[in-house]
Automatic annotation (TrEMBL):
Belongs to the peptidase S49 family. The active site is at K192 (proton donor/acceptor), S388 (nucleophile). Its main location: membrane. This is Signal peptide peptidase SppA, 67K type. Signal peptide: none annotated. It comes from Fibrisoma limi BUZ 3. It is found in: Membrane.
Length: 589
C-alpha cells in the first residue's frame, strides 16, 4: 500500500511540474512572439517586393502568431487574397518599393482569384514600377498571372505548360459496385450531375455539354487577356496549344510568350540594372508577409460614422457555425444581422466562394440577406465559385458582381442516400432486422431498400425545394419563371455567361463590389471605412490554434495528388438532406 501511495504521489508531482513548466514555456513563447510582433518591419530604400504565389490562395489569411519563430514559422501558409491586394495597393504608393519579383509557377487558387491578383498587379504597374517574373516551370495558371509582367524569365532547362485547359472528373460507381453500396438518387435538372460519380462511369451528354461550354469560356477569356499582354494573336495562341508548339523555353521565347531564357543570376542582374545598383551589391528583397507587417491597414481611415461591412463566406455550406473550409449558416446569419442592425454600416458586401452544400442552410442565409436588403444595400461578390447553394445565398442581393471566369449557376437540387445492406451483409457479415409501430417508421432507410412510395416522397421533397429555388431566383433577379427554368436545371455557367443571361449584373472583383455598395449607399470615396467580417481571432485564440497547419494544407502536404479523393470522401459525410452543390469537384488545369 505504501508503494502504491508513493507512485500516486510521484504521478501527481510529475503532472504538477509538467503543468508549471508547460505554462511557463507557453508564457515564454507568447512573450517572444509578442515582442516580435511589436517590432514593426521597416522597408529599406530601393527595395523589391518578392511575391511568391506558389501557395494556396484563399479569401483571407489566418494570422499565425508563430511567424518568424523558428520551426513554427508559417511563411508557406495560404495567401489571403484580401491582404495580398492591400499589400499591392500599399506598394504602389510606397516610394521605397521599386518593383516586384514575381514567382508564379503553380499558384493554388481558382481562376477568379487569380484574375483579381493579376488585375491588382496590372494596377501596380500604373505607378511605372516594374514587375519581373521568374520561374523554372510554369503551369497555365501560373503563366496567366505572370503574362502581364514586363519581363518573364524561364530557366534553360525549365518549361512552360501551354496545351489548353482540362477538366477531369472522377467517378466512383465501380468502387460502389465492388463494395455492394447502392446510391439512392433524387434530383431535379438534367444538368444537376453531382450524383453522376455514383451512378455512372463517365459524363452524361448534358454534363459534357455544360463542362465544355464553361471550360471554353474560361479558356477564351484567358487567351484574350494573354494576347493583350504579350501582343500576340488569339488564333496564334490556340495554334500553339493545339500543336504543342511550346516544347522548350526557346519556343516560348520565339513565340513572344516570354521575354528571356536565363538563370536566376541573370534574372537578378536585370533587376540590379533596373534598380541602378552594382552587380555585386545585394538586392533589398522584402517578402509579402514582412511587407504586410510593415503596412498594416489603418483601421481609422475613412469616416467613422460610415462603414461598409464585407462579410466573407468561403467553403462548403453547412448548418451550425463556420469552421475552416465551411460556411456555417449560424455564423453568416449572425454576421449579416450584426451588419443590418449597426447604424454605422451603410451597405453590406457578401463575398461568397462556395460550390454549395446544405439547402436549408443556404435558405437561412438567403432569408437574412432579404431582411438586410430592406434597410440597406446588399451587394453580392462572387469569387472562384458561387454556384448552387453559393448562388442561392446571393440571389436576393440588390446587385451581383462576378469575375468573368467565376463558376456560378447550377440552379438545381438533389438528395442522396446510400443503401449499404449488401455491403454489410456480403463484406462484413452484418445483417439487420426491425420492428415498427407504423408502416414507414424506418423512413428514410440506409440499411435496406426503400419502398417505391418512400422514394416518391423523397423525390417530391426534392421537387418542392427546386420550385422554391427557381421561384426565389425569379423574384430576386426580376426574371420570368420560364426564363429561369430555361437557364436552371442545374447547369453551370461562367460569370461572363451568367451576365449575358441575367444571373449577375456586372463583371469585376471584390473592389468593384465595394464601389457598387458605396455608390448604392450614396457614399463618396474616402467617406467610409471597410469592415471585414467575421473578425479575425485574437492573439491567444490564434496561439492555441496555430500549432498545426490548416486541415486542407495538411492533406495536400501529406497525400499530394491523393488529397482530393480523401477530401471528397470526407465531404460525403456532410451530404445529408437536400443538397445544392456543384455537379462536381472542379479543378481546371
Amino acid at each position: 500500500m505504501r508503494q502504491f501511495f508513493k507512485y500516486v504521489l510521484a504521478t501527481i508531482v510529475g503532472l504538477l511540474l509538467f503543468s508549471i513548466v508547460g505554462f511557463l514555456l507557453l508564457i515564454g513563447i507568447g512573450s517572444a512572439i509578442s515582442s516580435t510582433a511589436d517590432r514593426q518591419t521597416t522597408v529599406k530604400e530601393n527595395s523589391v517586393l518578392k511575391l511568391n504565389l506558389n501557395s494556396p490562395i484563399q479569401e483571407r489569411s489566418v494570422d499565425n502568431p508563430f511567424n518568424g519563430f523558428g520551426p513554427f514559422d508559417s511563411s508557406g501558409d495560404a495567401i489571403g487574397l484580401v491582404e495580398l491586394k492591400q499589400a499591392l495597393k500599399a506598394a504602389k504608393e510606397d516610394d521605397n518599393i521599386k518593383g516586384i519579383y514575381l514567382q508564379s509557377e503553380y499558384p493554388q487558387g481558382g481562376w477568379a482569384s487569380l484574375e483579381e491578383v493579376r488585375n491588382a498587379l496590372i494596377d501596380f504597374k500604373t505607378s511605372k514600377k516594374f514587375v519581373y517574373a521568374f520561374g523554372e516551370n510554369m503551369t497555365e495558371k501560373g503563366y496567366y498571372v505572370a503574362s502581364m509582367a514586363d519581363k518573364i524569365y524561364i530557366t534553360p532547362t525549365g518549361g512552360l505548360e501551354w496545351n489548353g485547359l482540362n477538366a477531369e472528373l472522377t467517378f466512383f460507381k465501380g468502387t460502389l459496385d465492388k463494395l455492394g453500396v447502392k446510391p439512392e438518387i433524387f434530383r431535379v435538372g438534367e444538368f444537376k450531375s453531382a450524383i453522376e460519380p455514383f451512378v455512372r462511369d463517365d459524363m452524361s451528354e448534358p454534363n459534357r455539354l455544360q463542362v465544355s461550354s464553361f471550360l471554353n469560356s474560361v479558356n477564351n477569356h484567358m487567351l484574350v487577356k494573354v494576347a493583350e499582354s504579350r501582343k500576340v494573336r488569339v488564333d496564334s495562341l490556340k495554334q500553339y496549344a493545339d500543336n504543342l508548339r511550346i516544347e522548350e523555353p526557346e519556343d516560348a521565347l520565339r513565340t513572344k510568350l516570354i521575354t528571356n531564357v536565363g538563370y536566376q543570376d541573370e534574372f537578378e542582374s536585370q533587376i540590379r540594372k533596373q534598380l541602378g545598383i552594382e552587380e555585386k551589391k545585394k538586392i533589398n528583397y522584402i517578402s509579402l508577409g514582412k511587407y504586410e507587417d510593415a503596412n498594416k491597414p489603418d483601421a481609422e481611415l475613412g469616416n467613422s460614422r460610415n462603414r461598409i461591412a464585407v462579410i466573407v463566406a468561403s467553403g462548403d455550406i453547412t448548418d451550425g457555425e463556420s469552421s475552416e473550409g465551411t460556411i456555417g449558416s449560424e455564423t453568416v446569419v449572425e454576421e449579416l444581422r450584426k451588419a443590418r442592425l449597426d447604424e454605422k454600416v451603410k451597405a453590406i458586401v457578401l463575398r461568397v466562394n462556395s460550390g454549395g452544400g446544405s439547402g436549408q442552410a443556404s435558405d437561412a442565409m438567403y432569408r437574412e440577406v432579404e431582411l438586410a436588403r430592406r434597410v440597406k444595400p446588399v451587394i453580392g461578390s462572387m469569387s472562384d465559385y458561387a454556384a448552387s447553394g453559393g448562388y442561392y445565398m446571393l440571389m436576393g442581393c440588390n446587385r451581383i458582381v462576378a469575375e468573368p471566369n467565376t463558376i456560378t449557376g447550377s440552379i438545381g437540387v438533389f438528395s442522396l442516400l446510400f443503401n449499404t445492406e449488401t455491403f454489410f451483409k456480403d463484406k462484413l457479415g452484418i445483417t439487420y432486422d426491425r420492428v415498427k409501430t407504423n408502416t414507414n417508421a424506418d423512413f428514410p432507410a440506409v440499411t435496406h431498400e426503400m419502398t417505391p412510395f418512400q422514394k416518391q416522397v423523397l423525390q417530391r421533397g426534392t421537387d418542392r425545394f427546386y420550385k422554391i429555388f427557381t421561384t426565389k431566383v425569379a423574384n430576386g433577379r426580376k426574371l420570368p419563371i420560364d426564363s429561369v427554368k430555361a437557364i436552371a436545371g442545374g447547369r453551370v455557367w461562367t460569370g461572363q455567361q451568367a451576365k449575358a443571361i441575367g444571373l449577375v449584373d456586372q463583371l469585376g472583383g471584390l473592389d468593384d463590389a465595394i464601389k457598387v455598395a458605396a455608390q448604392s449607399a450614396k457614399l463618396k470615396e474616402g467617406d467610409y471605412r471597410i469592415r471585414y467580417q467575421p473578425r479575425k481571432k485574437e492573439f491567444f485564440e490564434r496561439l492555441f490554434s496555430a500549432f498545426g497547419d490548416s486541415e486542407e494544407a495538411r492533406l495536400q502536404t501529406q497525400l499530394g495528388e491523393l488529397a482530393p479523393y480523401v477530401k471528397y470522401l470526407k465531404k460525403l459525410r456532410t451530404m445529408e438532406g437536400i443538397q445544392m452543390r456543384l455537379p462536381f469537384d472542379l479543378d481546371i488545369r
